[in-house]
Design a protein that fits this description.
Distance between the termini: 150 Å
Shape: rod-shaped
Strand content: under 5%
Structural class: mainly alpha
Helix content: 40-55%
Radius of gyration: 50 Å
Number of strands: 0
Order of helices and strands: HHH
Number of helices: 3
């Protein structure tokens, strides 16, 4: 069958010929650069995904693990020390028939260091006694 002269067909053939002449493969260097960019993006995406997975699993693991144990409480609670309002009287020198014991609350608290002051009147000079003061007087006994 002979071809008929169709104007639309001839226009399509003309456009195809023009597009074919303009289309050409890019140089090999350009294709290599595109491949490198795609490869770098893929590696960066995998690295970001790996970091997110590791940090997420670390956070989940930290949430499920038990925390640090609670601090241990002391065996006994020390009582607060009463403020001293002046010099403390010295104990009597007479022997007592029963031994004196400290209450358990004061036995566990830290003792205060003894104060060294001047000797009471009537004692040898130059001698100091712990807890004694110059103004102390004898307790009625």
């Amino acid at each position: 069958m002979p071809e008929s002269h169709d104007p639309l067909r001839s226009l399509f053939r003309e456009a195809a010929g023009e597009g074919e002449s303009r289309s050409a493969l890019p140089p090999v260097a350009v294709i290599e650069l595109r491949g490198e960019r795609v490869r770098r993006r893929r590696i960066a995406g995998l690295a970001v995904a790996t970091c997110l997975v590791l940090s997420g699993s670390g956070a989940a693991l930290a949430a499920f693990l038990p925390g640090s144990p609670a601090p241990a409480l002391p065996a006994s609670t020390p009582s607060p020390l009463a403020p001293s309002s002046g010099p403390t009287p010295t104990p009597s020198t007479s022997p007592s028939p029963t031994p004196t014991t400290l209450p358990s609350s004061t036995a566990t608290s830290s003792p205060t260091p003894p104060r060294h002051t001047t000797a009471p009147p009537g004692s040898p000079t130059g001698t100091t006694y712990p807890g004694a003061s110059a103004t102390s007087s004898r307790l009625p006994g």
